Amino acid sequence: MKTALLLSGGMDSVSIAWWMKPDLAITIDYGQKPADAEIAAARKVAELLTIKHEIIRVDCSSLGSGDMAGTAPLSAAPVSEWWPFRNQLILTLAGMAAVRMGCGRLLIGTLATDGQHADGRPEFVERISALMSFQEGSMLVSAPAIGLDAVELVRQSGIDQATLAWAHSCHVGNFACGRCRGCIKHFNTWHALGWTPH
């Protein structure tokens, strides 16, 4: 079965690309503020790993909220970067591309620490996979790192420091702000690994 990976260009999906070596990487610009940097990071990693790379652009910025949309979070937001139904949206878009490219399995970079979001929990992955596999195309969705935190994933993947240095983790822009939750996670992961961030 051919496998596709939702490759955001962040540390987690870059590590999974190295670890799982999918047949196809899909990056989605859905209107998020750091889209250009995420695409550049994903493109470079896909090139380094010789993985076919597909970019999808669908501007949903008018529907977003929080850090990634450049607006105040909604009252329902569990954390500042929450965007309503984001994972459901991007998995649907990625699934559409994956089916067209002949893939039957779609990997996502969800970690054990993403459980503060309902769409970052094992139950969500199971339900979205059941829904997408029920439909024509029979797309299976899986999260190979859902039992790991970021440090454990990097170690499990065996990714080298030079490749991981291409990852873009900032939630608010195309240059690392150093203050958002994505940047802080990036720094803390590198620190825990004993590496010096680039």
TrEMBL record:
Keywords: ATP-binding, Ligase, Metal-binding, Nucleotide-binding, Queuosine biosynthesis, Zinc. The keyword Ligase applies. Pathway: Purine metabolism; 7-cyano-7-deazaguanine biosynthesis. GO terms for biological process: tRNA queuosine(34) biosynthetic process. It comes from the Bacteria. It catalyses: 7-carboxy-7-carbaguanine + NH4(+) + 2 ATP = 7-cyano-7-carbaguanine + 2 AMP + 2 diphosphate + 2 H(+). Pfam families: QueC. It is an enzyme of class 6 (ligase). Its EC number is 6.3.4.20. InterPro entries: QueC, Rossmann-like_a/b/a_fold. One of its GO terms (molecular function) is ligase activity. The keyword Iron-sulfur does not apply. PANTHER family: 7-CYANO-7-DEAZAGUANINE SYNTHASE (PTHR42914:SF1). Belongs to the QueC family. This is 7-cyano-7-deazaguanine synthase. It comes from Mesorhizobium tamadayense.
